[in-house]
Each structure stands twice: as structure tokens, then as C-alpha cells.
Amino acid sequence: MRTIAIMNNKGGVGKTTTAIAMADILTRDYKKRVLLVDCDGQCNLTEFFLPDFDPDQSLTLHHILTGTGEPLWSDNVEQIGDCLQLLPASPDLYELDLKAVLEFSGDRQSARLLDFVRAAQENGEADFTIFDCAPGYTCASVAAMIAADDVVIPAGMDGFSFFGLQSMVRQLRALHRTGVPVHIAGVLLTQWRASDVVLQGEALLRQSTIPVFGQVIRRTEKVPESTFDRRPVTQYSRGSAASVDYRRWVQEYLGGVFDAL
Known about the structure:
Helices cover 45% and strands 13% of the residues. The chain has helices at 15-28, 44-49, 61-66, 98-102, 109-123, 139-147, 159-177, 196-207, 222-229, 233-236, 241-260, and strands spanning 2-6, 34-39, 78-79, 84-87, 128-133, 150-155, 184-189. A hairpin with a 4-residue loop joins strand 3 (78-79) and strand 4 (84-87). The protein has a seven-stranded mixed β-sheet with strand order 3-4-2-5-1-6-7, sandwiched between helices. The longest helix is centred in the C-terminal third of the chain and has 20 residues, at 241-260. Helix 1 (15-28) packs across helix 11 and helix 5 (109-123) packs across helix 6 (139-147). The protein is an alpha/beta fold.
């Protein structure tokens, strides 16, 4: 099983859209079994698939991180498709102590999500796990990075995004040196358009030491439209620029994964 954290310290760059599109492509086009994990206390991923979900009446990632979930990993997740499962989020994630997670050598919280993922892997019922992370180094995001094989960083291409991205990569590499096995699979340029500022920023980024995927995701109004329809953009508008680009990007990512195995 391959585990992927979709992460960026900046909001509004398409993390949840990327997680949803990637899961849809893997399940429909590649016939893979995917487990989605909502690591954001805003619960956007959870609300997208389960608009009536009540975190007070169900199990969530908070239960996994605090050790109060069900012993069998699959009893903690919601079935949302033939090959798609979701571990929901809840606002309770905001209450968890980030400092305790970062000091993971003496705290079991950070390892519980890794234990959950390993249980799913040993059970053989999922091919991919995708973590949709909140902006910043939250408790759940750090736990996701500890459990992930790869970190994918969706990013826009304005000045704030560019310099924030450089800072984030430095932080991830510093985290790697402390013993957290962070592997940056690459930056995924989202909301791309053929403007001077985007093209210049992209050229600068590709000249840096930061790994960048060759495929970009073009900007299209079909993405926000799809969120109102509560369908992945790859279903809502299969021929849209973003849908085509996301399929090409998943193909690029899988090529790298298979080469590494």
C-alpha cells in the first residue's frame, strides 16, 4: 500500500480538490482501492462526501490519534464507494496538542496513525491511502507525514505562494533530519494559467532544488462548480482542463512510484 500526504502550509491551493481527484482517478481509472483520511479540523473532505455526517455520533481521526477508536481499523472508516473509504475528521482535531506530536519520541499520539495505516496494509484491503492535510504543522498533519511514503505539495504561483513554498520545503527537510521520514514527491502547480507572473514563477521554481511535477493543473471554473455538485471534478466535467490534467498528473506520479518499487 502506498501512502500520500497532500500538504501545504498555505490554504486555498487545492489540497482537498487534489485529494478528491486523485482518489477518484485511482478508483475509477486504475481500479485501485483507496482510503481517504481527512486530517483537517475544517472537515471539508468529510463534508464533501458525507454532508450529513455527525462527528458526535461516529468515529473520526480524532479517535485514532487519541487511542479511543475501534481495535479493527476498518471499523473506524466510512464506506463511500465500491473501492473508496473515508476516515472522517472532526473539529476536535483543533484541540490536540501539536507540541506533544512533534516530540513524538516520548508520545504515542504521533505513532497511532502510522499503526492504523500499517493495520490497513497488513489487512490488504487498500492499495492507496491519501491524507488531506490542514494548512500548517497541526497534530494530524504531522502524524500524516510520519505515516506517509510521499508528500505532494499543491501550490499556486504568486509571490506569497512561491516564498512560502521555499520556507515549507526547508521545514520539511529539517523535519526529515529530526527523524521524521519525510519524502517530498514533488510540488504540483495548481490553478495554472498562461500569465507572465505564473510563467516566471514556474521557471524560477523549476530551476530550484525543489522537486516539481512536470504536469500542471490548469485553472478552470469547473473545479468550484464541482464542489457545489459534490462530485469530483473528474466526474463532474471529464473533459475539462483540470480533469485532463489531473489524469495526466496521476499517470506521472504512478510512473515514479512504480519505478521506485
